[in-house]
Task: structure prediction
Amino acid sequence: MVKRELTDQEYHLWKQITDTTTSLKTRESNCYLMDDMTALLKEKEIMVKSSLAIRRTEQSWQANQIQNQKNKEKQKPNYYCSKDHDFIERSILRKISKGHISINARLDLHGMTQEDAKNALHSFLINAQKCNHHFVLVITGTGKGRLGSGILRQMVPIWLNLKSFLPIVNGYKNAHSCHGGQGAFYVRIRRHKLLPKVESILSDRIQTN
Result:
């Protein structure tokens, strides 16, 4: 059988056929590629959903934490101040040292044990609040060692920051040298919550009489 050459028409027809067809191997590889792409897309979708779920969980947890903190703040009595209220304004300290603001009462803790001193301090401050005192002086001494090493001088600020003292104390500071310096404390007494009500009741009774 003698081979003959293709005519131009036959060549163009064959060219169109070969351009529009793919081999079986190419088809199989394309199928595998599509499967891989589909799997990757599904995996990515799962990862996105997981990250969104984690983010929502974190946001929900943060919102709950903030709400819990707000609830705790609402539950706190309004007379509670910060943990460390070692503070009295300088202008007031100057007036106390110059005698423009009087010290209403004094307590000397010299010679007491820690337990006795703590109980005496608490009772003294409660009584000062009942008497509507504004500023009192608590004398601790500086101790026998170097300046400021006395145990009572170290413990009084700790006691004044306890919860049992917070409704009574509105601030404290080391006294001026004329009132004992490092061995004494000015203590500002918080006004009793019931005092305004008692004063209003008394004023009403006086007016009716």
User: Anything to note?
Assistant: Helices lie at 8-19, 24-75, 90-97, 114-130, 151-160, 195-208. Confidence is low (pLDDT under 50) at residues 76-83, 195-199. The radius of gyration is 42 Å. Residues 90-196 form a domain with the Ribosomal Protein S8; Chain: A, domain 1 fold (CATH 3.30.1370.110).
